[in-house]
Amino acid sequence: MASGVYLPSFEDVMEAVLDLGWDREDHHWALYNASKVAAVNYNADTAYSATNEIVGAGYTARGQVVLGTAFTRPGAGVAKYSTNAVSWPSSTLSGVRFVDMFAEGVVGDPLMLGIDLVDPVNTSDGTLLITPHANGILTYDLTP
Fold first, then answer.
1. Residue 2 included in any domain
2. Cα-based angle 70, 73, 78 (whole degrees, multiple of 5)
3. What CA–CA distance (Å, rounded) separates 96 from 87?
4. Domain annotation covers residue 43
5. Is the dihedral of CA 2, 134, 14, 48 positive or negative?
6. Which pairs with CB-CB distance under 8 Å and at least 24 residues apart come from 60-66?
7. Which of 52, 9, 59, 19 has the alpha carbon at shortest distance from 33?
8. Which helix (H) or strand (E) holds 36?
9. Cβ distance 55 to 63 under 8 Å?
10. What is the signed CA dihedral for 29, 42, 24, 93, rounded to 10 degrees?
11. Would you say 128 and 86 are in contact if contact means Cβ atoms under 8 Å apart?
């Protein structure tokens, strides 16, 4: 018999106890420069910050709304969190290196996850498109 976490309870914890409502459709993806990568602290950072946020044509502070949020169960003991792609059309941006997802509308704008793009991305009156992997942004194997 394998050990593991019960998926319905795990999903309830993600939704209720954290009070972020991960499947809400009003969270935001905010873009940052490489200085954010050097400063990010997953053990201590708690809320959205404008420090090191990208500035440029076609980008509004606090980023874009995240749509298509969903927790699914793609396999036995696996929970997946996914979202739709997000884009900044007709943008001119330099040095985009990091993305923070935060719970817009929840008291204190708590951080949910961060994504290091590894290489800086630039646009020149073009579209910056971030497409999550088919396996989701987060995948938890709760019965290893």
1. no
2. 120
3. 13
4. yes
5. positive
6. 61/30, 62/28, 62/30, 62/104, 63/28, 63/29, 63/30, 63/31, 63/99, 63/100, 64/28, 64/29, 64/88, 65/25, 65/26, 65/27, 65/28, 65/104, 66/25, 66/27, 66/28, 66/29, 66/101
7. 52
8. helix 34-39
9. no
10. 0
11. no
Which range of residues forms the domain containing residue 120?
7-141
Q: What is the mean pLDDT of residues 112-116?
A: 91
Residue 72 token pair: 């699914």
In terms of phi and psi (left: phi > 0; alpha: psi -120 to 50; beta: otherwise), the region of 31 is: beta
Number of domains in the chain: 1
Give the pLDDT band of residue 105 (cuts 50, 70, 90).
confident
- Does 1 fall in a domain? no
Residue in the structure block whose two tokens are 């500035």: 55
Supply the pLDDT for residue 19: 57
The pLDDT tens digits for 35-93 are: 999 999 988 999 999 999 999 999 999 999 999 988 888 888 888 889 999 999 999 99
Q: Is residue 52 part of a domain?
A: yes
